[in-house]
Design a protein that fits this description.
One of its GO terms (molecular function) is NADPH binding. It holds the Pfam family DXP_reductoisom. Catalyzes the NADPH-dependent rearrangement and reduction of 1-deoxy-D-xylulose-5-phosphate (DXP) to 2-C-methyl-D-erythritol 4-phosphate (MEP). This protein is α/β, with parallel strands linked by helices and about 375 residues long. The chain folds into three domains: about 150 residues, NAD(P)-binding Rossmann-like Domain (Rossmann fold, 3-Layer(aba) Sandwich), CATH 3.40.50.720; about 160 residues, no CATH class; about 70 residues, RNA polymerase sigma factor, region 2, helix turn helix motif (Rna Polymerase Sigma Factor, Chain: A). The chain has a seven-stranded parallel sheet, sandwiched between helices. A four-stranded mixed sheet has the order 9-8-10-11, covered by helices on one side. Helix 14 runs antiparallel to helix 15. The longest helix is centred in the last third of the chain and has 22 residues.
Length: about 375
């Protein structure tokens, strides 16, 4: 029995993680779960999984939960960042699966690492904003960072049994999102509802917008550097609209090893929880007769400048990626609230990056301060431009 502390239990990754736990009750137990503010869903999860702790990040949602909680409930309810840190470092947890979206995941993930917990990582922002710090601490503590994103899980699997010095290139695949093949002039006036319609994957709102701008792939490029110890020149992105090849590794002898499968996030979730073993599933099997055509395209960085900005931040190093992420989080929120246009996202990100004075080897506290500065700065830009 492996005990799982799940940060982000009501989101897309979180609910699919609980489905893996539900299907394998003798192998996994959810000892703690956490949500932002989805009170009713969290109550259903508490009743089904009976965790030791449940956390609600927003205080008003915590107060609402306490009023609705069934009488006699044995689960202790916490709230805020203190609650997340507590369940990330609790003695009972073997693995912490971080599925929260955004910068909120960094502090509890660091707390889990400091307390020797293996990390099943679905929170891109943790490595995007503090990759060197996180990986250095994990190595020092002897903690495994196991990727949950389908692309990074595919790379992780394609590296199994191989010598890292033989790696020539990592190739991340991208579906292309809802606007694949479109040109810039066609996307100037797109709406959030159009941007949210991902063709292959069921994802949350923020990640769906990131997919439509290709920022999601940009963040994955930065994350790949830290997970696999490669440089920008050794990371390529190819658009693969079928989402069957989840990513690939090219070796110096010209061999390419790829991981393929039907689009189902439960597979990389389960693999991160069972690694180095594999466990039988009832997931859909890939039928090569139905998936007989696999195509690959070069990403269009002129139409989708967010991917270009992510590559530039990776090349510059320092704290540029933390600023990229913070500005993007704010701007995606503004786009979802219908306050800015689609191309205002990369426009204001670039303006914020231009104003940033980067810092090398930043501490956790410095990264959090830079994140706060970037959010304040981009909001000031919006106020003066709108």
């Amino acid at each position: 029995m492996k005990n799982i502390s799940l940060l982000g239990s009501t989101g897309s990754i979180g609910t699919q993680t609980l489905d893996v736990i539900r299907k394998n009750p003798n192998d996994f137990r959810a000892v703690a779960i956490a949500a932002n503010r989805s009170v009713d869903m969290l109550i259903e999860q508490i009743e089904e999984f009976n965790p030791i702790y449940a956390v609600v990040y927003e205080k008003d949602a915590y107060e609402s939960l306490m009023k609705k909680l069934p009488e006699g409930c044995q689960t202790e309810v916490l709230y805020g960042m203190d609650g997340l840190v507590k369940i990330a470092s609790m003695d009972e947890a073997d693995t912490v699966l971080t599925a929260v979206v955004g910068m909120i995941g960094l502090v509890p993930t660091m707390a889990a690492i400091e307390n020797g917990k293996d990390i099943a990582l679905a929170n891109k922002e943790t490595l995007v904003t503090a990759g060197k710090l996180v990986m250095d601490t994990a190595n020092k503590k002897g903690v495994k960072i196991l990727p949950v994103d389908s692309e990074h899980s595919a790379i992780f699997q394609s590296l199994n049994g191989e010598n890292r010095r033989d790696v020539e290139k990592i190739i991340l695949t991208a579906s292309g999102g809802p606007f694949r093949g479109k040109k810039k002039e066609e996307l100037v006036n797109v709406t959030k509802n159009e941007a949210l319609k991902h063709p292959n994957w069921d994802m949350g709102r923020k990640i769906s917008i990131d997919s439509s701008t290709l920022m999601n792939k940009g963040l994955e490029v930065i994350e790949a550097k830290w997970l696999f110890g490669v440089e920008r020149k050794d990371i390529d992105v190819v658009v693969h609209p079928q989402s069957i090849v989840h990513s690939m590794v090219q070796y110096r002898d010209s061999s390419v090893i790829a991981q393929l499968g039907c689009p189902d996030m439960r597979l990389p979730i389960q693999y991160a929880l069972t690694y180095p073993d594999r466990m039988k599933t009832d997931f859909e099997r890939l039928d090569f007769m139905k998936a007989s055509t696999l195509t690959f395209e070069k990403p269009d960085m002129e139409t989708f400048p967010c991917l270009r900005l992510a590559y530039e931040c990776l090349e510059k190093g320092g704290t540029y990626a933390a600023v990229l992420n913070a500005a993007n989080e704010v701007l995606v929120g503004e786009f979802l609230d219908d306050k800015i246009g689609f191309y205002d996202i990369p426009k204001f990100i670039e303006m914020t990056l231009d104003a940033h004075e980067s810092k090398e080897d930043a501490t956790l506290e410095e990264i959090l301060e830079i994140d706060k500065w970037a959010r304040t700065y981009v909001k000031s830009l919006l106020e003066s431009n709108i």
